[in-house]
Amino acid sequence: MKRFSALFSAIDQSTKTTVKTKALAEFFATAPDEDKLWTIALFSGRRPKRAVTTTQLREWAAEVAGIPLWLLEESYPIVGDLAETIALILPEATQTSDHSLSHWINTLHALHDIPAEDRKAQILAAWDQLDPTERFLFNKLITGGFRIGVSRKLMTRALAQATGQDEAELAHKLMGDWTPATTTYASLIEADDPAAAQSRPYPFYLAHQLEDAPENLGAPSDWQAEWKWDGIRGQLIIRDEHHLWSRGEELITDRFPEFARARDFLPKGTVLDGEIVTWDGTAPMPFSTLQPRITRKTVPKKLLKEAPVILLAYDLLEHQGQDIRNQPLEQRRAALETLLDAMSSDAPVRASPAITFDSWENLKALRQTSREMRAEGLMLKRKASPYLAGRKKGDWWKWKLDPLTIDAVMIYAQQGHGRRANLFTDFTFAVWKGNELVPFTKAYSGLTDKEFAQITAWVRRNTQARFGPVRQVTPEHVFEIAFEGIQASPRHKSGIALRFPRMARWRQDKPVQEANTLDDLHAMLATYG
Amino acid sequence: MRAPVLTFTDHGIYCPAGDFYIDPWRPVSRALITHGHSDHARPGMGSYLATDAALPIIRHRLGEITAEGIPYGETRRIGGASVSFHPAGHIPGSAQIRVEVAGEVWVASGDYKVLPDGLSEAFEPVPCHSFITESTFGLPVFRWPDQTEVAREMTAWWAANAAAGLTTFLGAYSLGKAQRLLRMLEPIGPILTHGAVEASNAVLRAQGYDLLETLPVTPDLDVKAHPGALVLAPPSALGSQWARRFGKGSTGFASGWMRLRGVRRRRSVDRGFVVSDHADWDDLHQAIKATGAENIYVTHGYTDIFTRHLIDQGYNAQVVPTQFGETEEEPA
Ligand SMILES: [Zn+2]
Ligand SMILES: [Zn+2]
Fold it and tell me: What InterPro entries would the database entry show (chain B) (predicted)?
């Protein structure tokens, strides 16, 4: 663990990408293969199978630290990370050890095969021989979520530096549903394994939000526009079998059985990139109808009927078994249309229309109609662009509609966690209903650190009542709340629920009386819900 | 029933028997001040009473004031109350204020640190019936690592930066923390100071506190003439225009908050060093226990959680809302 712990510290102690890449490349050049494989796995979102629950971990840690459980529970949201909280409260270790990362992961795996009551002793023994950083990492192995400032891209680059392999090639090798149990470092990185290649998706190309005026992009004739659908991004692979991948690289084939039929319509050696949406026969249905489909691992018949999905395909990555990502979008698009135009109207795949336009003015007007199209705005793609991997600036842009906004009054405040542990950052907002303020949403992002510090001092002085960690504050401050969508929700007192609410602006210029009303919200629900 | 020795008002902590306030946040005629930090020593009071050791800084910060100094441990009669000041170990000159009325003793701690730092007058437990404690770091996750080890890491980091041709930027609050670092660091190169830090240095040196040699950064300072330097500045100055002249460097920050990875990342510093001027979880408990007090009043920080834990332990504890710990400058 010492080598991995040193790697972690080097990465964690720097804000500079070059330093992080160098530390990782050095690790990949020198660590044992098994540790390298696990490091790749951890930094690409994979983790050991969980052998103890986080509830058990909390109880054991509180016991070892000699504090009541509630105190650990109260500390956790302030620290923002359970693995870290536990590492911080435990007493100093009485022993040291020099086992490898893989040793500790194997120890965790072995817990599955021993009686539950013996697992505690093993975890406590581990805590008692790890230093604080190692303990944090050990706990992270159990709780998961290894986000420590290493993007997958950065890791891939470091691996490319250490192995001398091409970065894009490596990125492709790392895709798919492998785990350290199903492969080895040698076969994943060093060899070419045709079986693994069967289900392997291509890295998704991600767009940036357009910040400038679209005119700065150049001639409209160089660009293709598409609707930006409000569904989930998916990659449909038709090879010997079919596979459906989410953008988070989760294999979601079983959740969407509709696509089994795609094999009847599409030839082997086809890979499509598109948006999975629920479909009423002619248009996408609201995102809220897709939600139950995303969360269910198996789909009941009724749901399948109520919320059928299709793929609105916008790109063709593999054609007749050939990787065509380097061809310009224009050519890929032509091939996509030839492939899909011939399909029957009940097929689960359709081409997402390409919108051509002769002036940015016209396109702006069209963008304003996005909500009627059940879209969130437009996508702009350069016709000459290849299909790149990851988030790259220049050729693909999201041009989303401006969010909906409403002015609301802050009525409750709660302390933040993690990065903002010592500030009040989580607020509840209300709108007027006659003389009463009705809470309708929470929001906790959108302000600068400086503004959070300012509001924190204010909250401390204007607390009217405390309910556990929640403070009721004098209704005095108005904030502009921006959100992406609104829907009816009988569970909420206000009768509505917002999508992605955040604070757009602190309206220090606005008196509370001028905040919006519940009627205003319901009018928005009628228009956009 | 007799009036309590100390009460909590919207102007600050008040003693009816002596008609004075302790660390008031609104103007009052008579103020007893625990220490020179700006959330405790505020302008606009009719008169000030503080330790002889704290007074120079308070005068320096507040300008023309009517103030009087008192040695640690000396008892003074004010109206019906007897008051005395006792070392709080927080920063040079800092004190806990003991107030006795008709045999009943209350102690207002201000801010305190039990750990000796080799600079501040060492903390002394003061027996009392009621104790007003801070709880800036009143959570079990805050436990301070061995400071000798932290000092060694800090110096090693500086040496590595110097070897790589980088300037070392160390952020620390200008009064207390910065001077403490000037005792912890090993002088392996020149130490350049920001004006705010140097102003406190000058006042404390004149009082006889022994600090490492420093070189104030002035507009005409030739930065290139001091390779391998460590720049000691308030956090707000790092990353500002002021810091640019020193070229490429590595940034560190010394604070109790650096114990939390999340806070360290928000500051986006390369290195966080856990050096605090406040008591950690264990020391808060130890200090409270040492007073023998039954009634504990909790201010600053994680007051709700800390108070609940004290009640669990059998104390008669309650949260007191104050305006301490609210200024930008509050050192931690
Ligand atoms: Zn202080
Ligand atoms: Zn304070």
Answer: MBL, RibonucZ/Hydroxyglut_hydro, Xnuc_lig_assoc
